[in-house]
Amino acid sequence: ENILPLLTSNRTSANDSLLIFAKLLCEQNQKLGLAYIGDGSQGSEAEWRFLRLDGFHFDQSWQRHDQIRQRVSVKSLFNFIFRAGSVIRLHIVGYEGLEVINPDGSSEDLEDEARKGRWKQEDRDGYWKVMQKYIGSDVTSLVTLPVLIFEPMTMLQKMAELMEYSHLLDLADECEDPYMRLVYASSFFISVYFAFQRTWKPFNPILGETYEMVNHGGITFISEQVSHHPPMSAGHAENEHFIYDITSKVKTKFLGNSIDIYPVGRTRLTLKKDGVVLDLAPPPTKVNNLIFGRTWVDSPGDMVLTNLTTGDKVVLYFQPCGWFGSGRYEVDGYVYNSAEEPKILMTGKWNESMSYQPCDSEGEPLPGTELKEVWRVADVPENDKFQYTHFAHKINSFDTAPKKLLASDSRLRPDRYALEQGDLSKAGFEKSSLEERQRDEKKNRVAKGQEFTPRWFDKTDEICPTTWDDLEVYRYNGKYTEHRAAVDNSDSVEAIDVKSIEFNPWQYENLAAA
Protein backbone atom coordinates (compact mmCIF):
# COMPACT_ATOMS: atom_id res chain seq x y z
CA GLU A 1 0.00 0.00 0.00
CA ASN A 2 2.96 2.33 0.49
CA ILE A 3 4.05 2.16 -3.12
CA LEU A 4 0.64 2.37 -4.81
CA PRO A 5 0.38 6.19 -4.58
CA LEU A 6 3.77 6.49 -6.27
CA LEU A 7 2.77 4.15 -9.08
CA THR A 8 -0.46 6.02 -9.80
CA SER A 9 0.83 9.57 -9.34
CA ASN A 10 0.52 11.89 -12.34
CA ARG A 11 4.09 12.94 -11.67
CA THR A 12 5.35 9.37 -12.08
CA SER A 13 6.11 8.27 -15.64
CA ALA A 14 5.36 4.75 -16.83
CA ASN A 15 9.08 4.10 -17.00
CA ASP A 16 9.61 5.29 -13.41
CA SER A 17 6.63 3.22 -12.28
CA LEU A 18 8.28 0.16 -13.75
CA LEU A 19 11.50 0.94 -11.92
CA ILE A 20 9.66 1.47 -8.64
CA PHE A 21 7.87 -1.84 -9.09
CA ALA A 22 11.18 -3.53 -9.84
CA LYS A 23 12.72 -2.14 -6.67
CA LEU A 24 9.76 -3.42 -4.68
CA LEU A 25 10.20 -6.88 -6.16
CA CYS A 26 13.89 -6.75 -5.33
CA GLU A 27 13.06 -6.03 -1.70
CA GLN A 28 10.59 -8.91 -1.59
CA ASN A 29 12.60 -11.41 -3.58
CA GLN A 30 16.27 -11.73 -2.66
CA LYS A 31 16.88 -13.71 -5.83
CA LEU A 32 16.33 -10.69 -8.03
CA GLY A 33 18.63 -7.72 -8.25
CA LEU A 34 18.34 -4.65 -10.45
CA ALA A 35 20.50 -1.62 -11.07
CA TYR A 36 19.89 1.35 -13.35
CA ILE A 37 22.53 3.94 -14.18
CA GLY A 38 21.80 7.16 -16.08
CA ASP A 39 19.35 10.02 -15.81
CA GLY A 40 17.30 8.86 -18.79
CA SER A 41 17.20 12.32 -20.33
CA GLN A 42 16.82 12.69 -24.08
CA GLY A 43 19.96 11.57 -25.90
CA SER A 44 21.73 10.53 -22.71
CA GLU A 45 23.49 7.23 -22.32
CA ALA A 46 22.01 4.73 -19.93
CA GLU A 47 22.82 1.29 -18.67
CA TRP A 48 20.55 -1.43 -17.37
CA ARG A 49 22.04 -4.25 -15.39
CA PHE A 50 20.07 -7.35 -14.40
CA LEU A 51 21.22 -9.89 -11.83
CA ARG A 52 19.80 -13.19 -10.66
CA LEU A 53 21.50 -13.87 -7.36
CA ASP A 54 21.04 -17.66 -7.44
CA GLY A 55 24.05 -18.23 -9.66
CA PHE A 56 22.78 -17.48 -13.13
CA HIS A 57 23.01 -13.79 -13.82
CA PHE A 58 22.22 -11.87 -16.91
CA ASP A 59 24.80 -9.19 -16.17
CA GLN A 60 24.00 -7.95 -19.65
CA SER A 61 24.57 -4.25 -20.00
CA TRP A 62 24.42 -2.02 -23.01
CA GLN A 63 24.47 1.64 -23.88
CA ARG A 64 21.81 3.09 -26.10
CA HIS A 65 20.29 6.40 -27.07
CA ASP A 66 17.20 7.03 -24.99
CA GLN A 67 14.63 6.09 -27.62
CA ILE A 68 16.40 2.84 -28.38
CA ARG A 69 16.56 2.08 -24.67
CA GLN A 70 12.83 2.77 -24.36
CA ARG A 71 12.04 0.22 -27.04
CA VAL A 72 14.38 -2.58 -26.03
CA SER A 73 15.36 -2.18 -22.41
CA VAL A 74 12.00 -1.46 -20.79
CA LYS A 75 10.45 -4.40 -22.62
CA SER A 76 13.26 -6.65 -21.41
CA LEU A 77 12.91 -5.38 -17.86
CA PHE A 78 9.17 -6.01 -17.87
CA ASN A 79 9.64 -9.58 -19.08
CA PHE A 80 12.39 -10.13 -16.55
CA ILE A 81 10.34 -8.84 -13.62
CA PHE A 82 7.33 -11.00 -14.35
CA ARG A 83 9.42 -14.12 -14.62
CA ALA A 84 9.57 -13.97 -10.83
CA GLY A 85 5.86 -14.80 -10.79
CA SER A 86 6.28 -18.18 -12.50
CA VAL A 87 8.79 -19.82 -10.18
CA ILE A 88 8.02 -22.32 -7.42
CA ARG A 89 10.35 -23.90 -4.87
CA LEU A 90 9.71 -27.56 -4.18
CA HIS A 91 9.04 -28.91 -0.70
CA ILE A 92 9.27 -32.58 -1.65
CA VAL A 93 11.40 -34.60 0.77
CA GLY A 94 14.87 -34.96 -0.72
CA TYR A 95 14.29 -32.24 -3.31
CA GLU A 96 13.80 -29.23 -1.07
CA GLY A 97 14.54 -25.87 -2.65
CA LEU A 98 14.66 -27.00 -6.29
CA GLU A 99 13.03 -24.48 -8.61
CA VAL A 100 10.45 -25.28 -11.26
CA ILE A 101 9.86 -22.57 -13.87
CA ASN A 102 6.78 -22.66 -16.09
CA PRO A 103 7.46 -20.76 -19.33
CA ASP A 104 3.82 -20.74 -20.44
CA GLY A 105 1.73 -20.05 -17.35
CA SER A 106 1.54 -18.34 -13.99
CA SER A 107 2.40 -19.48 -10.47
CA GLU A 108 -1.03 -21.10 -10.25
CA ASP A 109 0.07 -23.67 -12.84
CA LEU A 110 3.40 -24.53 -11.27
CA GLU A 111 2.37 -27.44 -9.06
CA ASP A 112 0.95 -29.18 -12.12
CA GLU A 113 4.09 -28.26 -14.06
CA ALA A 114 6.32 -29.85 -11.41
CA ARG A 115 4.61 -33.21 -11.96
CA LYS A 116 5.45 -33.23 -15.66
CA GLY A 117 8.66 -34.22 -17.39
CA ARG A 118 10.34 -37.24 -18.96
CA TRP A 119 11.63 -38.86 -15.75
CA LYS A 120 10.13 -41.90 -14.09
CA GLN A 121 10.25 -41.61 -10.31
CA GLU A 122 12.91 -44.30 -9.85
CA ASP A 123 15.12 -42.78 -12.57
CA ARG A 124 14.72 -39.32 -11.08
CA ASP A 125 15.71 -40.51 -7.61
CA GLY A 126 18.79 -42.30 -8.92
CA TYR A 127 19.86 -39.32 -10.99
CA TRP A 128 19.42 -36.92 -8.08
CA LYS A 129 21.48 -39.07 -5.70
CA VAL A 130 24.38 -38.77 -8.13
CA MET A 131 23.92 -35.12 -9.06
CA GLN A 132 23.01 -33.30 -5.84
CA LYS A 133 26.62 -33.16 -4.66
CA TYR A 134 27.55 -31.21 -7.81
CA ILE A 135 25.27 -28.22 -7.21
CA GLY A 136 27.26 -25.09 -8.04
CA SER A 137 29.86 -27.05 -10.02
CA ASP A 138 30.92 -27.22 -13.64
CA VAL A 139 29.61 -30.66 -14.64
CA THR A 140 30.82 -30.59 -18.26
CA SER A 141 32.75 -33.84 -17.87
CA LEU A 142 32.26 -34.85 -14.23
CA VAL A 143 29.41 -37.32 -14.45
CA THR A 144 28.09 -40.14 -16.60
CA LEU A 145 24.48 -39.50 -17.57
CA PRO A 146 21.73 -42.00 -18.44
CA VAL A 147 20.94 -42.61 -22.10
CA LEU A 148 17.27 -41.74 -21.60
CA ILE A 149 18.10 -38.00 -21.69
CA PHE A 150 20.18 -38.25 -24.90
CA GLU A 151 19.34 -37.66 -28.55
CA PRO A 152 20.94 -39.80 -31.31
CA MET A 153 23.43 -37.13 -32.34
CA THR A 154 26.85 -36.02 -31.09
CA MET A 155 28.10 -32.51 -30.39
CA LEU A 156 30.18 -32.70 -33.58
CA GLN A 157 27.02 -33.25 -35.61
CA LYS A 158 25.26 -30.47 -33.76
CA MET A 159 28.06 -28.14 -34.87
CA ALA A 160 27.25 -29.07 -38.47
CA GLU A 161 23.55 -28.36 -37.92
CA LEU A 162 24.36 -24.64 -38.06
CA MET A 163 24.95 -25.06 -41.79
CA GLU A 164 21.26 -25.60 -42.62
CA TYR A 165 20.75 -21.99 -43.69
CA SER A 166 24.22 -21.46 -45.16
CA HIS A 167 22.66 -19.71 -48.16
CA LEU A 168 22.48 -16.64 -45.89
CA LEU A 169 26.28 -16.57 -45.84
CA ASP A 170 26.36 -16.86 -49.61
CA LEU A 171 24.10 -13.78 -49.72
CA ALA A 172 26.33 -11.97 -47.20
CA ASP A 173 29.38 -12.61 -49.36
CA GLU A 174 27.63 -11.38 -52.51
CA CYS A 175 26.20 -8.29 -50.78
CA GLU A 176 27.83 -4.91 -51.47
CA ASP A 177 26.11 -3.13 -48.54
CA PRO A 178 28.28 -3.62 -45.41
CA TYR A 179 25.28 -3.32 -43.08
CA MET A 180 23.06 -5.74 -44.98
CA ARG A 181 26.02 -8.10 -44.95
CA LEU A 182 25.70 -8.15 -41.16
CA VAL A 183 21.93 -8.66 -41.41
CA TYR A 184 22.45 -11.82 -43.46
CA ALA A 185 25.31 -13.13 -41.33
CA SER A 186 23.61 -12.49 -37.97
CA SER A 187 20.40 -14.12 -39.22
CA PHE A 188 22.49 -17.16 -40.09
CA PHE A 189 23.74 -17.36 -36.51
CA ILE A 190 20.23 -16.81 -35.14
CA SER A 191 18.85 -19.65 -37.26
CA VAL A 192 20.60 -22.42 -35.32
CA TYR A 193 18.74 -21.55 -32.12
CA PHE A 194 15.67 -23.32 -33.46
CA ALA A 195 17.70 -26.54 -33.20
CA PHE A 196 19.18 -25.53 -29.84
CA GLN A 197 15.73 -25.49 -28.23
CA ARG A 198 15.72 -29.29 -28.31
CA THR A 199 16.03 -30.48 -24.73
CA TRP A 200 17.74 -33.81 -25.42
CA LYS A 201 21.45 -33.99 -24.70
CA PRO A 202 23.80 -34.84 -27.59
CA PHE A 203 26.49 -37.46 -26.98
CA ASN A 204 29.91 -36.19 -25.94
CA PRO A 205 32.36 -37.09 -28.73
CA ILE A 206 35.14 -39.59 -28.13
CA LEU A 207 38.63 -38.10 -28.38
CA GLY A 208 39.60 -38.26 -32.06
CA GLU A 209 36.02 -38.65 -33.24
CA THR A 210 35.09 -36.73 -36.40
CA TYR A 211 32.08 -35.72 -38.44
CA GLU A 212 32.12 -35.05 -42.18
CA MET A 213 29.40 -33.47 -44.29
CA VAL A 214 29.11 -32.83 -48.01
CA ASN A 215 26.20 -32.53 -50.46
CA HIS A 216 24.77 -29.38 -48.88
CA GLY A 217 25.22 -25.90 -50.33
CA GLY A 218 28.54 -26.81 -51.91
CA ILE A 219 30.00 -27.03 -48.40
CA THR A 220 32.76 -29.28 -47.16
CA PHE A 221 32.45 -29.62 -43.38
CA ILE A 222 34.78 -31.38 -40.94
CA SER A 223 34.74 -31.35 -37.14
CA GLU A 224 36.96 -33.20 -34.69
CA GLN A 225 37.10 -33.78 -30.94
CA VAL A 226 40.50 -32.30 -30.15
CA SER A 227 40.51 -32.55 -26.33
CA HIS A 228 38.82 -34.77 -23.75
CA HIS A 229 39.64 -32.89 -20.53
CA PRO A 230 38.37 -30.26 -20.98
CA PRO A 231 36.00 -31.38 -23.75
CA MET A 232 36.80 -29.30 -26.84
CA SER A 233 35.80 -29.57 -30.48
CA ALA A 234 37.02 -27.79 -33.58
CA GLY A 235 35.18 -27.33 -36.84
CA HIS A 236 35.79 -26.01 -40.34
CA ALA A 237 33.32 -25.40 -43.17
CA GLU A 238 34.02 -23.92 -46.57
CA ASN A 239 32.43 -23.30 -49.94
CA GLU A 240 33.05 -20.79 -52.72
CA HIS A 241 31.66 -17.92 -50.63
CA PHE A 242 32.86 -18.35 -47.05
CA ILE A 243 35.19 -20.01 -44.56
CA TYR A 244 33.77 -20.89 -41.15
CA ASP A 245 36.07 -21.81 -38.25
CA ILE A 246 35.18 -22.63 -34.66
CA THR A 247 36.91 -23.81 -31.51
CA SER A 248 34.11 -24.94 -29.20
CA LYS A 249 34.22 -25.31 -25.44
CA VAL A 250 31.61 -24.75 -22.74
CA LYS A 251 31.54 -24.14 -19.02
CA THR A 252 28.51 -25.10 -16.99
CA LYS A 253 27.02 -24.43 -13.59
CA PHE A 254 24.64 -27.03 -12.22
CA LEU A 255 21.91 -25.51 -10.05
CA GLY A 256 19.77 -28.53 -9.19
CA ASN A 257 16.77 -28.34 -11.49
CA SER A 258 18.57 -26.20 -14.04
CA ILE A 259 21.97 -25.74 -15.60
CA ASP A 260 23.68 -22.66 -16.99
CA ILE A 261 25.82 -23.11 -20.10
CA TYR A 262 28.48 -20.54 -20.94
CA PRO A 263 29.90 -20.56 -24.49
CA VAL A 264 33.67 -20.43 -24.05
CA GLY A 265 34.49 -20.63 -27.73
CA ARG A 266 35.64 -18.67 -30.73
CA THR A 267 33.74 -18.46 -34.01
CA ARG A 268 35.25 -16.69 -37.02
CA LEU A 269 33.59 -16.26 -40.39
CA THR A 270 35.53 -15.09 -43.46
CA LEU A 271 33.63 -13.84 -46.50
CA LYS A 272 35.80 -14.59 -49.51
CA LYS A 273 34.80 -11.81 -51.90
CA ASP A 274 36.24 -8.95 -49.81
CA GLY A 275 38.12 -10.94 -47.17
CA VAL A 276 35.87 -9.57 -44.41
CA VAL A 277 36.28 -11.39 -41.06
CA LEU A 278 33.37 -11.58 -38.61
CA ASP A 279 33.64 -12.60 -34.96
CA LEU A 280 30.71 -14.02 -32.97
CA ALA A 281 30.03 -13.65 -29.23
CA PRO A 282 26.82 -15.57 -28.38
CA PRO A 283 24.72 -15.27 -25.20
CA PRO A 284 24.72 -17.90 -22.43
CA THR A 285 22.01 -20.55 -22.28
CA LYS A 286 19.93 -21.83 -19.39
CA VAL A 287 18.28 -25.26 -19.42
CA ASN A 288 15.33 -25.24 -17.02
CA ASN A 289 13.43 -28.06 -15.29
CA LEU A 290 16.01 -30.82 -15.63
CA ILE A 291 14.35 -33.09 -13.05
CA PHE A 292 10.89 -31.68 -12.33
CA GLY A 293 8.70 -30.13 -14.99
CA ARG A 294 9.03 -30.04 -18.75
CA THR A 295 12.59 -29.20 -19.75
CA TRP A 296 12.93 -25.99 -21.75
CA VAL A 297 15.72 -23.71 -22.94
CA ASP A 298 16.25 -19.96 -22.75
CA SER A 299 19.21 -17.86 -23.93
CA PRO A 300 18.72 -14.35 -22.51
CA GLY A 301 21.39 -11.81 -23.30
CA ASP A 302 23.30 -10.19 -26.13
CA MET A 303 24.58 -11.79 -29.30
CA VAL A 304 27.31 -9.61 -30.78
CA LEU A 305 28.66 -10.11 -34.30
CA THR A 306 31.60 -7.83 -35.06
CA ASN A 307 33.21 -7.05 -38.39
CA LEU A 308 36.88 -7.17 -37.37
CA THR A 309 37.83 -5.55 -40.67
CA THR A 310 35.68 -2.41 -40.42
CA GLY A 311 34.47 -2.18 -36.81
CA ASP A 312 30.79 -2.41 -37.80
CA LYS A 313 28.72 -4.74 -35.62
CA VAL A 314 25.27 -6.07 -34.89
CA VAL A 315 23.97 -6.41 -31.33
CA LEU A 316 20.88 -8.58 -30.91
CA TYR A 317 19.24 -8.97 -27.52
CA PHE A 318 17.51 -12.28 -26.73
CA GLN A 319 14.57 -11.45 -24.48
CA PRO A 320 14.23 -13.51 -21.28
CA CYS A 321 11.05 -15.54 -21.03
CA GLY A 322 8.49 -13.73 -18.88
CA TRP A 323 5.16 -14.51 -17.26
CA PHE A 324 2.77 -16.48 -19.49
CA GLY A 325 5.63 -16.76 -22.00
CA SER A 326 5.86 -13.03 -22.67
CA GLY A 327 9.04 -12.19 -24.53
CA ARG A 328 9.94 -15.82 -25.08
CA TYR A 329 11.93 -16.37 -28.29
CA GLU A 330 11.97 -12.63 -29.08
CA VAL A 331 15.10 -11.01 -30.49
CA ASP A 332 15.61 -7.26 -31.00
CA GLY A 333 18.60 -5.16 -31.92
CA TYR A 334 20.51 -3.04 -34.38
CA VAL A 335 23.27 -3.07 -36.93
CA TYR A 336 25.77 -0.32 -36.03
CA ASN A 337 28.51 1.34 -38.01
CA SER A 338 32.01 1.71 -36.58
CA ALA A 339 30.93 4.95 -34.87
CA GLU A 340 28.20 2.92 -33.06
CA GLU A 341 25.40 4.70 -34.90
CA PRO A 342 22.38 2.46 -35.64
CA LYS A 343 21.83 1.77 -39.33
CA ILE A 344 19.37 -1.12 -39.48
CA LEU A 345 16.96 -2.40 -36.85
CA MET A 346 16.34 -6.12 -36.59
CA THR A 347 13.51 -7.96 -34.88
CA GLY A 348 11.97 -11.41 -34.81
CA LYS A 349 11.81 -14.69 -32.94
CA TRP A 350 14.68 -17.12 -32.95
CA ASN A 351 12.30 -20.06 -33.41
CA GLU A 352 10.40 -18.47 -36.33
CA SER A 353 11.94 -15.69 -38.40
CA MET A 354 14.01 -12.51 -38.49
CA SER A 355 13.21 -9.21 -40.23
CA TYR A 356 15.04 -5.94 -40.78
CA GLN A 357 14.33 -2.28 -41.58
CA PRO A 358 16.62 0.71 -42.22
CA CYS A 359 16.58 3.21 -39.34
CA ASP A 360 17.78 6.72 -38.49
CA SER A 361 20.42 7.69 -35.93
CA GLU A 362 17.82 7.45 -33.16
CA GLY A 363 16.90 3.90 -34.10
CA GLU A 364 13.55 4.88 -35.61
CA PRO A 365 12.45 3.28 -38.92
CA LEU A 366 13.18 5.47 -41.93
CA PRO A 367 10.07 6.93 -43.59
CA GLY A 368 8.99 5.02 -46.66
CA THR A 369 10.62 1.77 -45.52
CA GLU A 370 9.05 -1.39 -44.16
CA LEU A 371 10.09 -4.51 -42.32
CA LYS A 372 11.41 -7.18 -44.66
CA GLU A 373 11.88 -10.81 -43.74
CA VAL A 374 15.39 -12.16 -44.15
CA TRP A 375 15.03 -15.65 -42.66
CA ARG A 376 12.20 -18.03 -41.76
CA VAL A 377 12.50 -21.49 -40.29
CA ALA A 378 11.81 -24.30 -42.76
CA ASP A 379 8.90 -26.69 -42.36
CA VAL A 380 9.61 -29.38 -39.77
CA PRO A 381 8.34 -32.96 -39.40
CA GLU A 382 5.26 -33.36 -37.22
CA ASN A 383 5.42 -35.33 -33.96
CA ASP A 384 9.12 -36.12 -34.34
CA LYS A 385 10.34 -37.93 -31.22
CA PHE A 386 13.46 -35.78 -30.88
CA GLN A 387 12.00 -32.62 -32.46
CA TYR A 388 14.40 -33.04 -35.37
CA THR A 389 14.20 -30.90 -38.48
CA HIS A 390 14.46 -32.47 -41.91
CA PHE A 391 18.05 -31.22 -42.02
CA ALA A 392 18.85 -32.87 -38.67
CA HIS A 393 17.73 -36.20 -40.11
CA LYS A 394 19.99 -35.58 -43.12
CA ILE A 395 22.91 -34.97 -40.76
CA ASN A 396 22.33 -38.37 -39.16
CA SER A 397 21.92 -40.08 -42.51
CA PHE A 398 24.61 -41.19 -44.93
CA ASP A 399 23.13 -38.99 -47.66
CA THR A 400 25.44 -36.19 -46.50
CA ALA A 401 28.43 -38.52 -46.06
CA PRO A 402 31.37 -38.24 -48.46
CA LYS A 403 32.97 -40.92 -50.55
CA LYS A 404 35.09 -43.16 -48.28
CA LEU A 405 33.80 -41.99 -44.90
CA LEU A 406 36.37 -41.76 -42.10
CA ALA A 407 36.01 -44.61 -39.60
CA SER A 408 36.01 -42.03 -36.81
CA ASP A 409 32.72 -40.48 -38.02
CA SER A 410 29.91 -39.90 -35.50
CA ARG A 411 27.34 -41.63 -37.70
CA LEU A 412 29.14 -44.92 -37.03
CA ARG A 413 28.91 -44.79 -33.23
CA PRO A 414 27.05 -47.92 -32.07
CA ASP A 415 25.44 -46.15 -29.10
CA ARG A 416 24.12 -43.35 -31.28
CA TYR A 417 22.75 -45.80 -33.83
CA ALA A 418 21.10 -47.98 -31.16
CA LEU A 419 19.37 -44.95 -29.67
CA GLU A 420 18.21 -43.89 -33.13
CA GLN A 421 16.65 -47.35 -33.50
CA GLY A 422 14.92 -46.99 -30.12
CA ASP A 423 17.00 -49.61 -28.27
CA LEU A 424 17.87 -47.81 -25.02
CA SER A 425 19.36 -50.90 -23.38
CA LYS A 426 21.83 -51.50 -26.21
CA ALA A 427 22.56 -47.77 -26.45
CA GLY A 428 23.45 -47.66 -22.75
CA PHE A 429 25.69 -50.72 -23.07
CA GLU A 430 27.49 -49.36 -26.13
CA LYS A 431 27.92 -45.94 -24.53
CA SER A 432 29.54 -47.50 -21.45
CA SER A 433 31.81 -49.65 -23.65
CA LEU A 434 33.02 -46.63 -25.62
CA GLU A 435 33.69 -44.63 -22.46
CA GLU A 436 35.61 -47.54 -20.92
CA ARG A 437 37.69 -47.96 -24.05
CA GLN A 438 38.45 -44.24 -24.04
CA ARG A 439 39.77 -44.57 -20.48
CA ASP A 440 41.92 -47.55 -21.52
CA GLU A 441 43.23 -45.58 -24.48
CA LYS A 442 44.28 -42.76 -22.17
CA LYS A 443 46.09 -45.18 -19.82
CA ASN A 444 47.94 -46.65 -22.80
CA ARG A 445 48.93 -43.20 -24.02
CA VAL A 446 50.15 -42.10 -20.59
CA ALA A 447 52.15 -45.31 -20.19
CA LYS A 448 53.88 -44.61 -23.50
CA GLY A 449 54.54 -40.98 -22.52
CA GLN A 450 52.61 -39.76 -25.54
CA GLU A 451 50.09 -36.98 -26.10
CA PHE A 452 47.05 -37.13 -28.31
CA THR A 453 47.46 -35.18 -31.55
CA PRO A 454 44.41 -34.21 -33.63
CA ARG A 455 44.57 -35.07 -37.34
CA TRP A 456 42.75 -32.17 -38.96
CA PHE A 457 43.37 -29.29 -36.55
CA ASP A 458 46.53 -27.93 -34.92
CA LYS A 459 46.73 -26.46 -31.45
CA THR A 460 48.07 -22.91 -31.62
CA ASP A 461 49.82 -20.72 -29.06
CA GLU A 462 46.92 -18.27 -29.25
CA ILE A 463 44.86 -17.79 -26.09
CA CYS A 464 41.50 -16.15 -26.74
CA PRO A 465 39.94 -14.37 -23.73
CA THR A 466 36.16 -14.72 -23.40
CA THR A 467 33.63 -13.46 -20.88
CA TRP A 468 33.70 -16.74 -18.97
CA ASP A 469 37.18 -18.21 -19.44
CA ASP A 470 40.29 -18.20 -21.61
CA LEU A 471 40.31 -20.46 -24.64
CA GLU A 472 43.11 -22.37 -26.35
CA VAL A 473 42.54 -21.94 -30.07
CA TYR A 474 42.77 -24.78 -32.60
CA ARG A 475 43.31 -23.95 -36.26
CA TYR A 476 42.32 -25.97 -39.31
CA ASN A 477 45.50 -27.34 -40.91
CA GLY A 478 44.18 -27.97 -44.43
CA LYS A 479 44.99 -31.69 -44.41
CA TYR A 480 41.36 -32.72 -44.68
CA THR A 481 40.99 -30.69 -47.88
CA GLU A 482 43.95 -32.60 -49.33
CA HIS A 483 42.53 -35.91 -48.10
CA ARG A 484 39.10 -35.19 -49.55
CA ALA A 485 40.52 -34.13 -52.92
CA ALA A 486 42.66 -37.27 -53.14
CA VAL A 487 39.73 -39.55 -52.33
CA ASP A 488 37.25 -37.80 -54.60
CA ASN A 489 39.68 -37.88 -57.53
CA SER A 490 40.65 -41.49 -57.06
CA ASP A 491 39.19 -44.18 -59.29
CA SER A 492 40.49 -46.94 -57.05
CA VAL A 493 38.16 -46.34 -54.11
CA GLU A 494 35.87 -49.34 -53.92
CA ALA A 495 32.17 -48.86 -53.38
CA ILE A 496 31.40 -50.19 -49.90
CA ASP A 497 28.44 -50.13 -47.60
CA VAL A 498 29.35 -47.29 -45.25
CA LYS A 499 27.11 -48.78 -42.56
CA SER A 500 29.49 -51.74 -42.41
CA ILE A 501 32.43 -49.56 -41.33
CA GLU A 502 33.34 -50.11 -37.68
CA PHE A 503 33.57 -46.96 -35.58
CA ASN A 504 37.24 -46.36 -34.87
CA PRO A 505 38.57 -43.04 -33.52
CA TRP A 506 41.33 -44.75 -31.55
CA GLN A 507 44.99 -43.82 -31.66
CA TYR A 508 45.94 -47.41 -30.79
CA GLU A 509 43.84 -49.46 -33.16
CA ASN A 510 44.78 -52.82 -31.65
CA LEU A 511 43.58 -51.85 -28.18
CA ALA A 512 40.95 -54.40 -27.20
CA ALA A 513 37.55 -52.97 -26.44
CA ALA A 514 36.33 -53.43 -22.89
Automatic annotation (TrEMBL):
Keywords: Lipid transport, Lipid-binding, Transport
GO biological-process terms attached to the record: lipid transport
Family annotation (Pfam families): Oxysterol_BP (PF01237)
One GO term describing the cellular component: cytosol
Record field: transmembrane: none
GO MF entry, a single one: sterol binding
Similarity annotation: Belongs to the OSBP family.
Protein name per its UniProtKB record: Oxysterol-binding family protein
Source species of the chain: Prunus dulcis (Almond)
